[in-house]
Specification:
Length: about 625
């Protein structure tokens, strides 16, 4: 064909036209694919940054909550009557009971390595240690801790405090490359009511404790590190790199030495949710405020990190998807180039939203999607597991039907807040399909169209039922006497203070205070043994509680000494009540027979709680001096 002929020119123009159209479409799509790749990578990075920050926040709360829980358990352990009796007069049967109590605690709390009971001079009395086998423990030879660096600080602990001491280098060669772990000790003093008698020392393997906490959070495979204020490693790297701030042979191993520019910048800008990036690695920093009871040397910072290789692995499948679409659009570009480009733009936006929705629904948190009328549209697997509902059971019902009649108003208030503000966050009470009560932290936010019209709401739920139950149980344990079941001295002090404050606000709210002591109770213990003595105490409390009024408050304030607060009662009426108590005790069918002496006073405005207690105790002394088995009263 002649190149100068019109046909040739026509074909050439068509070929040129389609070649230009193909090339333009190809380059446009190539640019779109690369742009989409950057968006996906940026999105994955943002999600990883967000997940890393959430992990550090959750870990910070979790680790402090676990430490507080273990501290409360240590305090409850030190507040036991059996412990005081053993320190006062060690006996073989008391040793066996204490060993069983320590063994049970080790079985319940596997993070505890050992429990040590020492006297005021640091001499070991009882030492129970976790064994390698799960749930088993062994009785070790007690050790003398008087030479330990932290022992001199124990005498400064108050009755209601628990000391925390991070250490473990005292008996370890500082240059030892075999050193693996750091000990965190929780120490609580044992008081006889007024003076210390000894100390309970609960020891945790610090790194094992951190590792088990990460496992509980489902983050055992997270790239997690823990640093001290100088940048040395406390957790998350090779064992022989840890604790360079304490071990001379490891001083060169630190985050500061490995990443000096990042460390310098983070120290200037701060640590909370700080994000720093090297050529291949992305770090997220968070201040971790741990009360470790030593000094600022163990102020810690936690961080997680991820690499570009991990980002590439997470985005590779999505990029293959988009590249296939690009090839398909290139092949049909000669026919529907403009329409195809428009559809691709629309499609890309939809896919972005779709992946975001999938990532949300596949997250570890329970997620629920409701429409603009409050009806459930979708739930994820975690939400279904918590409430016991399958998708078929729940789709179409209103979300406030998860609550009972008493909480319906709260759920409707949540809905009203969503209508006004578009979001809501707080605690809710839900009920599973089987009727189980669930306490949860809930967060709702609205989904809006381009025209700002609300299309529905997304809610996330965190189950805190176990934490609420533990808090309630611990509150009960801290105010209840373990032997008799009545309230303890701590509860009595608070109750007496409240009564005095109420009286100051309203002088007509008078009350009476009685102190009751079982006569010759030491003889019962000496002649019949402490087991019988315990039974007598329990029987005595039962008899007294049968005779006092429903609103009177009985507390155990000493070994065989009890206090009774009689609200809104004048001393004449209080005398009748406590005389009835005295007669009931004296005539009770129990062997050995017992009687009781009672000191009674009536409150007045110018008296503080300690004054009232001393006056009541003085009346009790007069009752005993007068022959016992009597009620002696006087206005304070």
């Amino acid at each position: 064909m002649d190149k100068h002929s019109p046909r040739f020119k026509s074909v050439a123009s068509v070929v040129a036209y389609f070649s230009i159209l193909f090339a333009a479409t190809y380059f446009i799509l190539f640019w779109q694919i690369n742009a989409q790749e950057r968006r996906i990578v940026d999105q994955v990075k943002q999600e990883e940054f967000s997940d890393a920050s959430k992990l550090l926040d959750v870990f910070s709360r979790h680790i402090n909550s676990r430490l507080n829980t273990l501290s409360q358990m240590t305090f409850l352990l030190s507040d036991g009557e059996l412990l005081r009796q053993f320190l006062e007069q060690p006996k073989e049967d008391s040793l066996l009971l204490l060993s069983d109590a320590f063994r049970n605690l080790l079985l319940l709390e596997l993070d505890i390595e050992s429990i040590h009971l020492v006297d005021l001079q640091g001499k070991g009395l009882l030492h129970m240690k976790q064994k390698g086998i799960l749930g088993s423990s062994i009785l070790e030879t007690p050790e003398d801790i008087s030479s330990e660096l932290y022992f001199h600080e124990l005498k400064m602990l108050s009755m209601s405090s628990v000391g925390r001491y991070l250490g473990g280098f005292e008996k370890t060669m500082l240059n030892s490359l075999d050193y693996r772990n750091l000990a965190l000790r929780l120490v609580a003093p044992v008081y006889d009511g007024y003076l210390p008698m000894g100390y309970v020392v609960v020891s945790l393997a610090f790194n094992k404790f951190l590792r088990s906490s990460l496992v509980e959070l489902g983050a055992e495979h997270a790239n997690f590190m823990l640093l001290n204020h100088s940048g040395h490693y406390l957790y998350g790297v090779r064992d022989d790199w840890l604790f360079g701030h304490e071990l001379t042979s490891r001083s060169a191993y630190s985050f500061q030495a490995d990443y000096p520019d990042i460390w310098r910048k983070v120290n200037v800008d701060g640590h909370d949710n700080a994000v720093e990036t090297t050529q291949d690695t992305h770090f997220v920093f968070k201040t971790l405020e741990l009360d470790l009871g030593r000094d600022e040397t163990y102020e810690t910072w936690s961080l997680t990190y991820f690499t570009n290789k991990q980002i590439d692995e997470m985005t590779s499948q999505e990029l293959v998807y988009f590249k296939r679409w690009g090839v398909l659009i290139v092949l049909v570009a000669f026919i529907v180039a403009v329409l195809g480009s428009w559809m691709r733009v629309r499609r890309s936006k939809f896919v972005e939203l779709s992946y975001m929705a999938q990532a949300t629904m596949r997250s570890m948190s329970p997620i629920i999607l409701i429409d603009e009328f409050g009806r459930v549209k979708k739930i994820n697997k975690q939400f279904s597991m918590i409430l016991g509902y399958g998708s078929a059971d729940i789709i179409g019902i209103t979300f406030w039907n998860f609550s009972d009649d008493r909480n319906q108003k709260v759920m409707h208030d949540v809905w009203d807040q969503l209508q006004v503000h578009g979001s809501w966050e707080g605690e809710v009470t839900l009920f599973s399909k089987e009727g189980r009560k669930i306490e949860g932290l809930c967060h709702f936010f609205s989904l809006e169209s381009n025209s700002r019209k609300v299309k529905g709401y997304v809610g996330s739920l965190v189950d805190i039922s176990a934490q609420k139950a533990l808090e309630s149980r611990l509150r009960d344990l801290t105010i209840t006497d373990a032997l008799t079941g009545c309230k303890n001295r701590r509860f009595f002090d608070n109750a007496l203070t409240n009564q005095v404050e109420n009286l100051k606000r309203n002088p007509r709210q008078i009350f009476c205070l009685g102190i009751i002591d079982i006569d010759y109770f030491k003889r019962v213990n000496d002649e019949y043994g402490h087991d019988v003595g315990d039974e007598v105490l329990q029987f005595f409390v039962h008899v007294v509680e049968q005779e006092i009024r429903a609103f009177d408050l009985m507390c155990r304030v000493g070994g065989e000494e009890f206090a009774i607060i009689l609200p809104n009662t004048e001393i004449e009426d209080a005398c009748l009540v406590l005389e009835r108590v005295r007669l009931a005790v004296a005539s009770a069918d129990i062997q050995p027979a017992i009687t009781c002496s009672v000191g009674l006073i009536q409150s007045e405005l110018d008296r503080e709680p300690d004054d009232l207690y001393r006056w009541a105790d003085e009346m009790l002394y007069r009752a005993k001096q007068g022959g016992r088995n009597r009620v002696t009263s006087c206005r304070s």
